[in-house]
């Protein structure tokens, strides 16, 4: 059969040669219609080629074909070469990641963000013009085998004499690694995306729910609406009398300081001392990189500034930049301190992260290490320590009343109001919430709409009720969590005591100084003993011979003999 097929093919080739010699085109009897169509197409192509050659020379036709081929090659390089380059870059990134585990973590975050942007570019090439999707920080995990993954708290030391709170170890990353893991994009803000603030020229003080000239006088309906979380919100958040915080709003700040505060676009560490109540504590263990990139601000009133006068120059004491605040809106110093504590996002509108510490605290860890440990590693946007001893709001209120922190009637009114709204005592049923009472002297947070909303609502409760912010914390947190599934990272109090050291207030130091016994420098010389009188001179020098042991035995035997005779 193979020979027959070869014979047929050879015969066809032979007949084709013969027909070509005779000038006749080969005809296949099997498909006459297809042959006619093919011949017609050839004639049209020949006609087109002849027409092109008629109006253009051969050189021009060659150049035209060369341009078409070049364009095809260019298109092939653009589409296929780009994909190859992306593959090569990903291979290089993978190789770098294998050599450094921490780079692997950061690189994976960068690749995720870059991928979302590249997809939008490819869609634009196709012709679908959509804005690039927003990219958010979604957290990270330390590589397997990292010592912080297996770090556990050791048991507390068995010291019966010391039963109060104490610091515990915290697994920080080195400053360089913490800085490398700083997110390049903001975290996701659930529900709310745009948050603006109310400005009122004419305040309406006749409302049923109280307020102040600084925080405004919102009605009860406005307060309830502020807990209805929406994508875009406009709400009270202090500074209601002016369009720019710190300028004619109460809590007024010089324009030069406001300009410097606006230029802080990274990390800010802030504190405040009012009424010369504390002594400024200089941070320790701060890296040179943090000294150059982190903004350290200390807010003081006129009384504190007068106490510090002559102790600083160029508005700085150590790493702290001193900011003088005038026209404080409240007579209560603790309530004035809540303004920078809870409204740092309004005073520093361009900052990404903030770390608030009370004026009595000394910072002893680098800010980047603290942010990495309690925010970025936990994928949290606000972190605060829980109280070391109390977890229930009702117990906390009673402790405040017993300590005289606020008048009892105001405390009872606030607790009863929250109770009518649904506040219940803390129990294990609230897990994973670990406490309802924070230790509010330290707040670590990222400035995004959801965390800014939380601190605004928290400040409004402090402005409306008592200045004891521990009482209102859980109410604000739980109301937001019910609408957005957002919550706060509440870490251990002993971990907070690891990076801040609590000092005494000025009045306590003065009281301790009064109670301490006076110290005389140098100590007096000891008075020599007087010489003995003359009649005692020989007696003092006379030596009494020791009694012999044998004599004692003989005496005792004699005593026994005498006693027998008497019997």
TrEMBL record:
It comes from the Eukaryota. Keywords: Membrane, Transmembrane, Transmembrane helix. InterPro entries: TOD1_MUCI70, TOD1_MUCI70_glycTrfase_dom. Residues 195-505 form the TOD1/MUCI70 glycosyltransferase-like domain. Residues 544-567 have a biased composition (Basic residues). It comes from Gossypium tomentosum. This is TOD1/MUCI70 glycosyltransferase-like domain-containing protein. Pfam families: TOD1_MUCI70. The chain crosses the membrane at residues 61-81. The keyword Cytoplasm does not apply. Residues 523-535 have a biased composition (Pro residues). PANTHER family: ALKALINE CERAMIDASE-RELATED, HEXOSYLTRANSFERASE MUCI70-RELATED. Residues 523-567 are annotated as: Disordered.
